[in-house]
Structure formats: structure tokens, C-alpha cells
Amino acid sequence: MPLTRDQIAKRAAQELEDGYLVNLGIGMPTLVANHIPVGTDGKPIEVWLQSENGLLGIGPFPTDDKVDADLINAGKQTVTALDGSSFFSSSDSFGMIRGGHIDMCILGAMQISQQGDIANWMIPGKMVKGMGGAMDLVAGVEKVVVMMEHVSKRGDAKILAECNLPLTGKGVVDMIISDLCVMLFDQSKKRFVVTELAEGVTREEIEQKTEAEIFFADELKTVEV
């Protein structure tokens, strides 16, 4: 059974580590803020979520009584700020990204190639506002995790041999968490390896819905969410 968007976010949150600085892309990745893992002491681990419009320390989405229209993320959604958060200019924010100070980014994608290329900012002929910070993120962040539906609304594969949409970055994706499975990029094979399957999803289904050349781990786990 495919994972819901919230379950994909919960699985992505499992990649967070104590002390990490993490950038969340617009759309589905923003849900990760609601699923910060709990440490051995029973408290949420310390993760500082960054938004490229100038905020370090994003908290969970606000309840209706806590909404502050002046406090938004890069996707213009209202957010909360943790104690100890800092606010700064976009130029300082991109300095953090380009300077290699962000440990991980979690992004959405329209297409991923078997070589780890990502296309996530434009569909030719459609009105778009621009690439935003995506190109800087995939070039300047140590670990790039992608959250996505495995196929398009029309059922077309989104994990391809080659992307046919304009690229955001080449060979930059380390991990894919889709509604069907988890894939890790293997540097020796230069291909993605499926390591986890959503409950009820089969290897044959993944092969049918993936155009890219992929491999499967010897021991496939079930995604735990």
C-alpha cells in the first residue's frame, strides 16, 4: 500500500541527526518539521531547520490560534520558530548554503535520473517563478534527500534513465523516499539501490513503475512509519 505524504515525511525525518542544520524544500518536505525524531532521553533531538528566506529554527506548523502572518517559510506557509531561532537576510541564508554549512536538504522532485540528476523547478511552457534556492542547495549541501510520488498523476515514471525536464543539478541525489520505496545511491554502481519497500509493495511493482536501471538490496526491509 503506498505511503501517504505524511508517512513519507515521517520516514524522511528518520534521516535527521542530533545537531543537524537542515533545509526543507517547499511542498511535501515542509511536513518533516512535524516529525522530528525523539532521542534516548525521550525528548526531540536538536535539529535546526533552515528556510532560505532567512530563518534558522523552524518549528512545527502552527495551530490556528498560533498563526503569525509575518512568520513564513520559503513557500509562504506560516510556521513557528523555536526558542533560540535566528532571523537574517536572504544573502546570509544563501551564504550558509553555498558555504557548505547545511548538513542536509530535503527536496521534492518532478524527475530523477538513474545517475542521480534532479529536475524539480520547471516544466517548459508552464508559468513558474524561477528556480529559487534549489540549485544552490543541491550544489552546496552535503546530503540531498528527495521526497516524491513514484509516478506522476498520469502514471508516468518519474525515476528515469535520463531526465527530460530542465535539470536542477547533475549527480547530486543521495536518497529517494517515494510512496512505494526507499532508494540509496550507490557510488560504486552509479545507480540507485532499493533498500526498503512500503508494506504490500512488491519488487515487481517497483520494476514496472521505474524506467531507470536500479538494483535491489539482498535483504529488503519494510518502511517503518
Molecular structure report:
The protein is α/β, with parallel strands linked by helices. It has one domain: Glutaconate Coenzyme A-transferase, CATH 3.40.1080.10. It is 14% helix and 28% strand. The strands form two sheets. A ten-stranded mixed sheet has the order 4-3-2-1-5-8-10-11-12-13, with helices on both faces. It has a three-stranded mixed sheet with strand order 7-6-9, with no helix packed on it. The radius of gyration is 17 Å and the shape is globular. 36% of the residues are buried. The mean pLDDT is 93.
Write a concise synopsis of the structure shown.
The chain is α/β, with parallel strands linked by helices and 225 residues long. It has helices at 5-13, 90-98, 134-140, 203-208; strands spanning 21-24, 48-51, 55-58, 81-87, 104-108, 111-113, 118-119, 143-148, 159-160, 175-178, 181-186, 191-197, 214-222. The mean pLDDT is 93.
List low-confidence stretches. none
What is the CA–CA distance across the termini? 13 Å
- Quickly name the level 1 CATH class: Alpha Beta
CATH topology: the name is: Glutaconate Coenzyme A-transferase
Oligomer: single chain
Largest sheet: 10 strands, mixed
What is the CATH homology-level superfamily? Glutaconate Coenzyme A-transferase
Which structural class do the helices and strands define?
alpha/beta
User: How much beta, percentage-wise?
Assistant: 25-35%
* Number of continuous helical runs: 4
| Arrangement of strands in the largest sheet | 4-3-2-1-5-8-10-11-12-13
Quantity of strands, as a count = 13
Gross CATH architecture: 3-Layer(aba) Sandwich
**Overall pLDDT:** 93
SSE string:
HEEEEHEEEHEEEEEHE
Overall helicity: 10-25%
Number of domains: 1
Our Rg estimate from Cα atoms comes to 17 Å
